[in-house]
Amino acid sequence: MSEANKTPAPLVIDARHLTKIYGKKKRDQKFTALKSVSLQIARGESVAIIGKSGSGKSTLMHTLALLDRPTKGELYFNGERIGKLNSRHLNRVRNRELGFVFQQFFMNANDTVLNNVMLPLRIAGTSLFKRKKIAMDALRTVGLEDKAKNKAKDLSGGQKQRVCIARALVNSPSVIFADEPTGNLDSTTGAMIEKTLFDLNKEKGITLIVVTHDEDIAKKCKRQVYLKDGEIIADTKKEVKLFVDKDGKGRATVKELKSLTEPKLKGAK
Amino acid sequence: MNILDILRMASSNLFRNKVRSLLTILAIFIGSFTIILNSGINYGVNSYVDSQVANVGGEGYLEVLKAEEGLFDISFGGMGSGGPTEFDPNATPRIQAITNDDLKVLRSIDGVESAIGLPMVSAKYIESQTSRKQFEVSLQTFPSSRLLLDMATGRTPDNNSSQPEIILAPDFAEALGYTDQSVLGQTIDLGVALQSLAPDAPEVIKNLDVTVVGVQNRSVVGMGNSWVNLAAANAMQALSLSEIPAEFRPSDSFFFAIVEVREGANDEEIAQIQATMRDKGFQAMTIAEQVGMIMSIFDAIGMVLNIFGAIALLAASIGIINTLFMAVQERTKEIGLMKAMGLSNGKIFLLFSAEAIMLGFWGSAVGILVALVARGIGNNIANQTFLQDLPGFTLIEFNAPQIAGIVLLIMFIAFCAGALPARRAARQNPIDALRYE
């Protein structure tokens, strides 16, 4: 068991047999959102978690993002077992290691762009001078440094999402979770947001985990994890290897993968 | 997140909902204003009483009545509990005259230095020997050399002197045709009405010469009285009884006795003496207690104001709870986001508590400002009306530590009111909060 407390260093997230059950009291009201899900994500990967609503993808993201605790199973973040952290340490990990980009932005509309971006630094207790500097750098990364003094509500949807990306960036996290990041945007703006996110992944080596039901954005990630009814039904990191052996082409596309997994599902029913 | 940031954020959150915050502050203001103003009155009255008592000295002697306990309830007439008292022909009168035997009893009490009966005096008028103008005058016998009246000039009457002496109430010197300075040493006349046994006899008034030895300032103890010394009082009594045959003159008896206690007796010893006197059927009051009784009307007003202020604060607390519950509801997502970003439950609690405390602070700050304005207006009105005769009496006086204490108390009340909503905010689950629509 001593081995279970350590995982190889390059893994940023190591989830083992995560099970999440809602509604504990009565057996017939129980709902199992995750069924023994195991997932290893290495530093610098870009992973799409794909599934329809009710597939458990949000629950999985919340669990991986340390916002929710699994009913069963073990979760390691940067090699540390999460269940064993006290709340102070947990808050520190959330603050320092994780960044969030949400579909609904979750911004303080009446506050300035700069203040919105500075929020994680404020929570971290960074000094005012330092936090302004870091936040301006982050805004520069997303190309919005000239909007720093504007009120958040005066921005367009795409600008708002870029502000959110800047906010996710300021603490230089090791992982950014993006929950339907383009869901509220038109396709042109969406493409721009996608580009910003993937650039960060490539240039800064930040692990990117995108939760989506949109195949287009999922395609752009290097790895896809398909979820249905609380189970991983396909994971390209594993499947590709299998697929390559059959096909010989060396790399599978998502479309091909889909055609591979679908009959499997039908057969299961 | 450090404390300064929490305060800044709480402050900007309050500012985000200006109208709601203002209304809550207004509610707190009503309570805080009332309490601050009331404490101002309380302080004003007490410091005046203190200054008066300090002026009159007064701890060195007692005014003694021969009366049963609870005498001072009589002033409330039938309003006391139990309704009218049935007449009992064998009961002793509630107040009795003090006789020479009583004085002996008083003198025998441990710690008593002297006891004298204080003759009641009255004069029909006071008359200037130069202008011959006559004025009505309210006279009192000077009780003790230990009474340090607030003197404009001269000295207090000397009860050991055989010369009749008087000190004038304020404004009398001028009315009699002198200045406060020039009247000193002058002889003026007091008109004493002669008592007669014949019911329909015309009133005869004879003049008694007295020497002016001092002029008083206005004070609550002086109360517009002119004071004569014992020699003058005895002379006036003798003059008033001069037409009555000796066998019909009343025997020596007094309404009041003045008891001087041993020099340097402390409050405890005086209280002991008062208790002993009570056991022997006397009621003894210090000058401070007498002044305090005059001022007790302000205490009653203060009590009512305090109750009103407390009720207003209670209502304001409910306002704070409501405001913060609405704020928590509105900012559920924000709370969720901040928690997701690693803000601890404790800090979230602090954030909302800080809002409550700030509401309390601003409410009491506005209360102080308005109370300052009210002090100016109130004191002006009071000095022109019911406090006209009491210079040096500032009705409303503020005292910084007391007000700081009130502000802290109100901030604490606000904190308590905010604790429930703040706790709810702190306990939000970040996912539920982010999902909240």
Which short descriptors sum up this protein?
heterodimer, A: 269 residues, alpha/beta, Rossmann fold, 6-stranded mixed sheet, 4-stranded antiparallel sheet, 10 strands, 41% helix, disordered N terminus, disordered C terminus, B: 437 residues, alpha+beta, 2 domains, 8-stranded mixed sheet, 5-stranded antiparallel sheet, 15 strands, elongated
Write a structural description:
- The complex is a heterodimer of chains A (269) and B (437).
- With 269 residues, chain A is an alpha/beta fold.
- Chain A has a domain of 184 residues: Rossmann fold (3-Layer(aba) Sandwich).
- Chain A contains nine helices and ten strands.
- Chain A is globular, with a radius of gyration of 19 Å.
- Chain A starts with 10 loop residues before the first strand and ends with a helix.
- The N terminus and C terminus of chain A are likely disordered.
- Chain B has 437 residues and is an alpha+beta fold.
- Chain B has two domains: 192 residues, no CATH class; 238 residues, no CATH class.
- Helices cover 49% and strands 16% of the residues of chain B.
- Chain B contains eleven helices and 15 strands.
- In chain B, strands 5, 6, 7, 8, 9, 10, 11 and 12 form an eight-stranded mixed beta sheet that branches. In chain B, strands 1, 2, 4, 14 and 15 form a five-stranded antiparallel beta sheet that branches. In chain B, strands 3-13 form a two-stranded antiparallel ribbon.
- The longest helix of chain B has 44 residues.
- About 2% of the residues of chain B have low confidence.
- At the A-B interface, helix 2, strand 6 and helix 3 of A face helix 1, helix 8 and helix 11 of B.
